[in-house]
């Protein structure tokens, strides 16, 4: 099968690694990688890269993510969600207006200390390994950004929030921090990730749906092409005479003629109709003359140099 990206809807009870393992069995391919861990109890969007698309995993990790979280006030647990051991139960005496104000105060850039029950590594070991032994380590805070945070509904002690955030944000910790600020504590009762970059839950498929598509020979219909990840970049098409050089990932010289600009509007305004007018460091999607995606090239003083190579021979 060709390389690409599957928009998987992870169901509760599976780890992200479970999803990858099951897909290896369904697709009969080893080269698979997911783009952002979801806790076993959480559900939602988990883009999974297949074949050469696994080279895009690290690039996709930086995408913004959107979650629907159920924050339960009045309870503190050791894992910051309701799967952990309850440490405290407190009365919830805060008003809805106080909750609205405190939640809104978490908008924007901030430092967040990752939870002990997390896959973050300290000393080469994941934090949850220490937590399971009852060991609490000092953790370095991560810089995160909450791009949007809104309360969708309140039925105290439950508060349903929609959160759009940067890479590295722990929604469990966000709930716990809000609860601490309110003075009653809080834990995350449920979590659904509804968007990762351009991949959303409306178009995500469960593992059983992917298995059905594979059995029916329809995998090509549900596989997103690798270049979909880079749709915001301007695109160039090489002339037929550069087919061999392109397949080998060779640099493209400044004097090269016959390269077609495929971008329009705002993307075109950055360079005009000639890619050679682009500023140094600008990235392009580059295609062969027959439309096959090669990879990402970056403008340099000599012309264009390859940054990420995704080409694969068509069968």
UniProtKB/TrEMBL annotation:
Spell out the catalytic residues.
39
Domain Pseudouridine synthase II N-terminal: residue ranges = 24-171
Q: Which Gene3D superfamilies match?
A: Pseudouridine synthase
Its domain of life?
Bacteria
State a single Pfam family of this protein.
TruB_C_2
> In this protein, which residues make up the domain named tRNA pseudouridylate synthase B C-terminal?
172-230
Instruction: State the family it belongs to.
Output: Belongs to the pseudouridine synthase TruB family. Type 1 subfamily.
Q: In its UniProt entry, what is this protein called?
A: tRNA pseudouridine synthase B
């Amino acid at each position: 099968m060709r390389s690409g990206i599957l928009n998987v809807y992870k169901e509760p009870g599976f780890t992200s690694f479970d999803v990858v393992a099951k897909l290896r069995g369904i697709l009969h391919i080893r080269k698979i990688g997911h783009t952002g861990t979801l806790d076993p109890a959480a559900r939602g969007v988990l883009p999974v890269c297949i074949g050469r698309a696994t080279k895009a995993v690290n690039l996709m990790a930086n995408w913004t993510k959107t979650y629907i979280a159920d924050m339960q006030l009045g309870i503190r647990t050791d894992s910051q969600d309701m799967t952990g051991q309850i440490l405290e139960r407190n009365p919830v005496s805060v008003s809805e207006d106080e909750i609205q104000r405190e939640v809104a105060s978490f908008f924007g850039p901030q430092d967040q200390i990752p939870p002990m029950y997390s896959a973050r590594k300290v000393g080469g070991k994941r934090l949850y390994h220490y937590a399971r032994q009852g060991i609490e380590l000092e953790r370095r805070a991560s810089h995160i950004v909450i791009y949007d945070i809104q309360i969708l509904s309140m039925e105290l002690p439950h508060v349903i929030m929609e959160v759009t955030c940067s890479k590295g944000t722990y929604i469990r910790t966000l709930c716990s921090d809000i609860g601490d600020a309110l003075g009653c504590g809080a834990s995350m009762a449920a979590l659904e990730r509804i968007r990762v970059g351009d991949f959303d839950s409306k178009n995500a498929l469960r593992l059983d749906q992917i298995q059905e598509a594979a059995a029916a020979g329809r995998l090509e219909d549900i596989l997103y092409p690798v270049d979909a990840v880079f749709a915001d970049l301007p695109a160039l098409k090489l002339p037929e005479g550069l087919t061999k050089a392109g397949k080998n990932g060779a640099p493209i010289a400044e004097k090269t003629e016959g390269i077609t600009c495929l971008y329009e509007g705002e993307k075109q305004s950055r360079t005009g109709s000639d890619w050679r007018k682009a500023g140094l460091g600008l990235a392009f999607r580059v295609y062969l003359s027959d439309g096959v995606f090669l990879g990402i090239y970056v403008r340099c003083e000599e012309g264009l140099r390859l940054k990420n190579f995704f080409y694969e021979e068509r069968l």
